[in-house]
Specification:
Two copies of one chain form a homodimer. Chain A is an alpha/beta fold and 340 residues long. Chain A is built from twelve helices and twelve strands. In chain A, helix 2 crosses helix 3. The N and C termini of chain A lie far apart (77 Å). Strand 2 of chain A pairs antiparallel with strand 2 of chain B. Chain A binds a DNA duplex (30 and 30 nucleotides) through helix 2 and helix 4.
DNA sequence: CACTCCTTGGAAAACGCTTTCCGAAGAAGG
DNA sequence: CCTTCTTCGGAAAGCGTTTTCCAAGGAGTG
């Protein structure tokens, strides 16, 4: 057998019409008599018949696949969200096609286009929108094109496109964290702000500032260092912060992986956290819950973001794009001990 | 526009035949005159034409998609390998469909079947084979069916199926680790062995034992504890080991995430590593390189496993299934200090 | 100038399925 | 016993491409 059996093969072998074979093998409202039904089923099994999804997609108009675009699948933030999506997709009998932009935000639009070619049922855009209006415009165009077919689109990020969106309360979370840190006695902060074009980073910084402002605390501009949204980004940024000899007692990294980089850098500079410097992060990445000192952070239920996004995209479309807010919760741990 | 433009639409609008339009828009060896070429291109752009991949798949017989099956995408081990696959796939212009068995090995065969329906070009099975012969038989059947179409299959794991395989030198790596630990002065070991049905776990344990045997050291059976292949599995297993009050000075966890769980458990039992107990892992997971004390482990270039697997599956098939050995390298760090 | 060879465009046949429309046969109703 | 419904099987028309085969015209060749 160097070519897989087709429905026609099965029908011929079973001595029935194509229509009957199709009705038996691939769900239909129509009933088929027990006799024929049985015959079709057994011949299909004998021939190893496997429906050609492409052919089905052609006549049905869409494929039972949902496309997911993330920035970096090796980053636990994204892989956790992806896990949530896949969990739900599995329940719905959908396959998940996953693409990674490798942190080049302009690739997102390319992948949406690729998914349009595939006529996938839905696309989920996971990850921060950017501040670049041109990128946004291009993405919006592709999204509209995709939707003008039968496709659905949702995002896990900020609400910048007219599509269903699961938005993480980055500002509120960061604000709450700031307040808690102040309550613990911290007053002088440094911030590892991440890339300035990523709204997630921007929002978390803004929320943090806002929380401090409530207590009359401000952060000097040279206490805020940008950098990559990665462990190494956090490491480098922390080095820069120390080089500036700023007078701070607590470093807020806008995500956990950067916070871990920061702790490593502090150690390398003989300022081991938390005694010489407190550190806080954001996300509560599961894999990082065991670093020492245990990291104060803001918990986001990442898998749930993925689940919710898939639910949105599979459910009835609303008359107007919906927004689901995802709560965050401050988790205080050893990396930010109460001061004295 | 509530239905996307088809090739026929473009052809009609541009006043050319379907054949010509197809040749212009979707690569072909045939040359089309500059005039027509131009006309087709502009009308396609105007109409927002996007080739229907399903239709192309039907006539070509396969989709430009590669399926990947992992055990748990949220586990950094798998997400790193997946990142490698995706990196290469991107270069080859392929989409990646990712499925997670959620650690139920019997689901692998199901996903291979699903990918067969999709007529994806290739499938990569990532993750340990098991010791269950029934599971293996079922998987083999599905793999053969898949291959009897035009599909290619490769695995990242042990060589148990007649397909191209990237095999991690688990035994050699674990043996080398054992020898290094002995050289550091350790003699009494406990092992967190993971699930006994996973060959990866089994092989690492066997290799470790083998390395110790070279030095006349054996491990008592009650110094070996099974458990889940996860952080919590490591935590629980360590608790069990301590409860047994075995006399050991070093714990070898068959993967890093378990090792991290072990360190947490040790701390909770007031036996902080490495002073009260040394710990070693396996994999050198990037996200875990910053735990303290830094973890002694065996480095595997995970992303490279993924890249290699994709290369195998896209390259010319060998006359007979090929095997690519992936080297491991012992990395000694602070979690296993030299004993005086 | 007659012939062959190339180049380029088009018609039409697949590819494997779903679904609409028909028709036959049996059941129900008068 | 005739008519009207049901029920169930089959023929055939797509779905949107690619690709083979033809044909026409122009460029080379002797």
């Amino acid at each position: 057998m160097n070519r897989s059996a087709t429905l026609a093969d099965v029908a011929r072998e079973a001595g029935v019409s194509l229509a009957t074979a199709s009705r038996v093998l691939n769900g239909s409202t129509r009933v088929v008599g027990e006799q024929l039904r049985e015959r079709v089923l057994t011949t299909a099994a004998e021939l190893n018949y496997s429906a050609n999804a492409a052919a089905q997609a052609m006549v049905r108009g869409h494929l039972d696949v949902v496309g997911v675009v993330v920035h970096d699948i090796a980053d636990p933030y994204f892989s956790s969200i992806a896990a949530g999506v896949m969990e739900r997709a599995e329940q719905a009998g959908l396959l998940v096609a996953l693409s990674s932009t490798l942190r080049q935000p302009d690739r997102e639009a390319d992948y949406v286009a690729a998914f349009r070619r595939q006529r996938v049922r839905a696309v989920i855009l996971v990850g921060s929108r950017t501040t670049d209006p041109a990128q946004l415009a291009r993405l919006r165009t592709e999204v509209e094109r995709f939707e003008s077919g039968r496709g659905r689109v949702a995002a896990v990020s900020q609400r910048r496109l007219p599509i269903d969106t699961v938005v993480v309360e980055n500002r509120a979370g960061a604000r709450a964290l700031a307040e808690e840190l102040v309550a613990l006695g911290y007053r002088r902060f440094g911030v590892l702000a991440g890339p300035s074009h990523l709204l997630t980073a921007v929002d978390r910084l803004a929320g943090f500032r806002n929380g401090l402002a409530h207590h009359g605390i401000t952060i000097d501009d040279d206490h805020v260092v940008g950098g990559e949204f990665t462990r190494d980004g956090g490491y480098v940024a922390t080095g820069e912060l120390l080089r500036r000899k700023v007078d701070v007692s607590c470093i807020f990294a806008v995500n956990d992986v950067m916070a871990v980089g920061a702790m490593a850098a502090l150690r390398d500079h003989r300022m081991p956290p938390p005694r010489r410097m407190a550190v806080a992060g954001f996300d509560d990445i599961a894999t990082l819950r065991d670093v020492t000192p245990r990291l104060t952070t803001v918990r986001v239920d990442l898998e749930d973001l993925g689940r919710t996004a898939l639910d949105l995209v599979l459910g009835e479309p609303g008359r107007t794009p919906r927004t689901r807010m995802a709560r965050c919760e401050v988790v205080l741990r050893e990396s930010t001990p109460a001061t004295r």
